[in-house]
Design brief:
There is one protein chain. The chain is of the alpha+beta class. The protein is built from seven helices and 15 strands. The chain has helices at 2-22, 26-34, 62-76, 95-105, 187-193, 199-206, 221-231; strands spanning 43-51, 84-87, 108-116, 122-129, 137-140, 146-150, 153-161, 167-176, 179-181, 183-184, 211-217, 235-242, 246-253, 258-268, 271-279. The strands form two sheets. Strands 1, 2, 3, 4, 7, 8, 14 and 15 form an eight-stranded mixed sheet that branches. Strands 5, 6, 9, 10, 11, 12 and 13 form a seven-stranded mixed sheet that branches. A hairpin with a 3-residue loop joins β12 (235-242) and β13 (246-253). The longest helix has 21 residues, at 2-22.
Length: 280
């Protein structure tokens, strides 16, 4: 009985002492409220998007194929930071040639389906990445639009600086990310993406830190931007580049990703390679 009383006394003493260790002062509450998370420019990763930014297939002849193959094999192969490359509008009529590019560049591939144009022609984008991905899935978003998701291994860098701002070193960083891509052609597709019961909310509830890069018709971008903001004010739709028909966009939550710049290289015959720089 004495041992039981001693045990109860010890538990009571611990319960009375707990608020001393877990309580917050008023200063502490202000400190916690002032803490916020945001991407840092000391981190950098790159994604390449090869596109015409028009409503046309990427490859229309041998010269186009040769230019893309040279870019993938001679420019990107073995290049640090080339871990995810998107070939936009690699429709099925060009699929054999595009698959040859993947063999030449020694990279894994996945197809991001956009729509079935007719009984024999489908449209989409080919994704090239360095490490195998376990699952590639699609989510319907209105009529004729599918959002493709996968978890490739991102390869980036962290740049360390001293108090004076001088670079002291660069460290390689890699981890799997939640990547999404799509093409929006109609206002109905954009509307299906947003809203309380829309696809965007479904995707972000699965993975809040998702990163989405895709294309949208130029006249629909402002609608996409407002739809994203009204669905969740912490998400933003960024205009990365604008072509004659389509805009290259990026959607992400402000705490996880932000674009830091886009460079472009003209490959041939209206085909442009865009390099999107990201921080997280």
């Amino acid at each position: 009985m004495k041992s039981v009383k001693k045990y109860l006394a010890a538990v009571l003493a611990l319960a009375l002492a707990a608020p001393v260790f877990t309580g917050c002062t008023e200063d502490d509450s202000y400190s916690l409220e002032s803490v916020s998370a945001s991407p840092s420019d000391k981190f950098n990763a790159k994604i390449q998007v090869v596109s015409r930014l028009t409503d046309a297939p990427l490859v229309t002849g041998d010269a186009d194929y040769t230019a893309i193959n040279n870019y993938m094999v001679n420019t990107l192969k073995g290049q640090e930071g080339a871990w995810l490359t998107i070939l936009d509008r690699t429709d099925n009529v060009d699929l054999t040639k595009v698959m040859t590019v993947s063999l030449n560049a020694y990279r894994w591939t996945a197809f991001a389906f956009n729509r079935l144009k007719n009984r024999t022609t489908y449209e989409g984008s080919m994704l090239f990445f360095n490490q195998p991905s376990r699952l590639v899935k699609s989510e319907a978003c209105g009529k004729g639009c599918y959002i493709t998701g996968m978890s490739p291994k991102m390869e980036g860098t962290r740049t360390d600086k001293d108090e004076s701002g001088n670079v002291t070193g660069t460290v390689d960083v890699s981890f799997n990310i939640e990547f999404r891509t799509a093409r929006f052609d109609t206002a109905d597709q954009v509307a299906a993406f947003g809203g309380e019961n829309g696809v965007m909310n479904k995707l972000k509830r699965e993975k809040m830190n998702m990163l989405m890069i895709g294309t949208v018709k130029n006249e629909l971008f402002s609608g996409l931007q407002s739809t994203v903001a009204s669905t969740d004010a912490t998400f933003h739709a960024h205009n990365l580049a604008q072509g004659s028909g389509y805009t290259l966009f990026m959607i992400s939550e402000e705490r996880f990703w932000a674009p830091t710049g886009v460079t472009s290289d003209n490959l041939a015959n209206g085909i442009t390679a865009y390099t999107v720089n990201l921080m997280w």
